[in-house]
Specification:
- By secondary structure, the chain is of the alpha/beta class.
- The chain has helices spanning 16-32, 63-77, 90-102, 113-121, 123-129, 157-170, 185-201, 218-230, 245-255, 281-293, 323-338, 349-355; strands at 37-38, 51-56, 81-86, 107-111, 134-138, 149-153, 175-180, 206-211, 237-239, 259-263, 273-278, 297-298, 301-303.
- α2 packs parallel to α10 (281-293), α6 (157-170) packs across α7 and α6 (157-170) runs antiparallel to α11 (323-338).
- It is globular and about 65 Å long.
Length: 357
């Protein structure tokens, strides 16, 4: 792994069952209820403490949000004071943003376009009174012109490309499954990356796609997987169904279908998950914070990819592949980093043009 950031960060986390309960409860209660600029040298601080917080409108307890938070936990090991705030309403978001500014937080990481908008709504106040604070808007393609802000993304195309390559080489029936929550532009990034990797394997594999039709409903995830398996010959499945994906994994375990997880390493959910397509936002958090300490001038938007030190999969999962495939996957990752393999080649060139890659 890179920069001392490894999936060992999971030690000490709550159990999977507790995490899932926390997610569902939080979702239930939520339902009720120019240039980014450089700072030059870091401003002098009276207490010498660097502070970074994470404000999210998605509750902790799912892989992606916990992965982001693990980046801040790494900063804590490096001497930073860190905090995580879960906030689901605009008024509360505004209150928490102001509180973090007043408490002297240097870097504020956000997740959720609603939190981003709450920051932008305070632009005049923030720029006037807190010019040295930098905001990093994580996992969004909504680039802002507000000074002191940077959009940070990790396009899942690379990790999903490798997942597709793995699936195409893993299937014996010639049919690989794909389970998504809904058909949205963001989810199409996962979908097309997977297709591209399957195509690159050049084994004639057919992808059978289905939707859970819900972001968080585990029962729908389970039922959609059972239906897909009953109407196809899939013998490997990539689930990128967000929280409803837990139900997908449960169904795969019940049916004995090897499963590829998403966002973070999901091999601890069930051994049926032999591979995970990782979106390494923790690396982006750590690297941006270290760059801030070095006085880096940030652009309005940044993207982290394999070439920037990200990782598309959990290295120990290579042991779940046969040695020949494992070696091919490592070589493929190296070739993507070097540019020898273009994940957007062929029919996915239009995707590159649409996203500016």
């Amino acid at each position: 792994m890179n920069n001392g950031i490894t999936p060992e960060r999971r030690r000490g986390r709550p159990s999977r069952a507790c995490k899932l309960c926390a997610v569902l409860l939080a979702v239930f209660f939520a339902a009720l209820g120019g240039c980014g600029g450089g700072r030059g040298a870091k401003s002098a601080k009276t207490d010498g403490i660097n502070r970074a917080c994470f404000i999210t409108s998605t509750p902790r307890g799912n892989e992606f949000i916990d992965l982001i938070w693990s980046g801040l936990e790494q900063l804590a090991k490096e001497g930073w004071e860190v905090k995580c705030i879960e906030t689901f309403e605009t008024a509360e978001q505004t209150e928490q943003i102001r509180a973090m500014l007043d408490e002297g937080y240097d870097l504020i990481y956000t997740q959720g376009d609603d939190v981003l908008q709450s920051v932008v709504d305070l632009e005049d106040e923030i720029v006037k009174n807190y010019p040295d604070v930098h905001f990093f808007f994580l996992d969004t393609y909504d680039v802002q012109t507000m000074p002191g802000t940077t959009t940070v993304t990790i396009d899942p195309f690379e990790s999903c490309f490798i997942a597709g390559f793995v699936a195409a080489n893993k299937t014996k029936s010639g049919e690989a499954g794909l389970m998504m929550p809904l058909d949205t532009p963001i989810m199409q990034r996962f979908e097309y990356g997977y297709y591209a990797g399957v195509d690159y394997a050049a084994r004639g594999t057919i992808v059978r796609k289905a939707y859970t039709t819900d972001w968080v409903d585990n029962t729908k995830g389970y039922e959609a997987t059972v239906a897909l398996a009953a109407n196809s010959k899939i013998d490997v499945l990539f689930q990128c169904a967000y929280i409803s994906g837990y139900g997908v994994i449960q169904a795969c375990a019940a049916l004995g279908i090897p499963c590829i997880g998403v966002d973070d390493w999901q091999g601890d959910i069930n051994p049926i998950v032999f591979w995970s397509a990782i979106k390494s936002m923790d690396v982006a958090v750590v690297k941006t914070a270290r760059a801030w300490l070095a006085g880096t001038a940030f652009p309005q938007a940044m993207e982290y990819a394999l070439r920037d030190g990200g990782y598309a999969y959990y290295d120990p999962d290579l042991a779940n592949l046969d040695p020949v495939l494992a070696s091919a996957v490592v070589k493929l990752k190296e070739d993507i980093i070097s540019g020898a393999v273009d994940v957007f080649a062929g029919k996915y060139e239009a995707y590159r043009l649409a996203t500016g890659r």
